[in-house]
Amino acid sequence: MIESSDRTPLPRDFFDRPVLEVAPDLLGRTLVRLTDDGPIELRLTEVEAYAGEADPGSHAYRGRTARNAVMFGPPGHAYVYFTYGMWHCLNLVCGPEGFASGVLLRAGEVRVGLELARKRRVSARYDRELAKGPARLATALDVDRTLDGTDACAGPESPLSVLTGTPVSPHQVLTGPRTGVGGDGATHPWRFWIDGDPTVSPYRAHAPRRRRA
Fold this sequence. Notes:
Blueprint: E1 6-9, H1 12-15, H2 19-25, E2 30-35, E3 38-51, E4 78-83, E5 87-94, E6 101-112, H3 114-120, H4 134-140, E7 160-165, E8 173-176, E9 191-194
Antiparallel strand pairs: 1-7, 2-3, 2-7, 3-6, 3-9, 4-5, 5-6, 8-9
């Protein structure tokens, strides 16, 4: 049985806090994606924090670029990037404007719009796999670069928004190294997930990419 959740939208000041406060507080919240075919909603179960120019693992570590400009903008906006030439990933900008911190949405449980998510994630064997990992989450929710800069605090008509949902208690939250992050940021315990949730993705350490001969 799925418990009822709070449908109140999260205000901008929720995101206007340090990234290490926002990230674990997003667990259990409801992410809403309005598509042309209908709404898709999921309960967030896994996230990662990235602390801008102070964080070697962040896209903003070396400063502002055309790609990461949204990260330096107001909190509560979506930062969407394209990776490995095939996948999109969805982040929510947080912290004070100009600092460029954000939270990568790594996994969730689809609760509304299952049929829409299944059509986009035809390789998923079970519903718990629909958004199990950041690229899968973005694919299931029809997220691409056109949503980069979307204001998730703009109201119910926004293509992306976050509702209060059912936040989890601190003792249910586990933390560990971020997936796939190497170098000086490899050991930061800034990945947060709900203990025992089947939609959480498996941890994978950073594997250096080999150059072709």
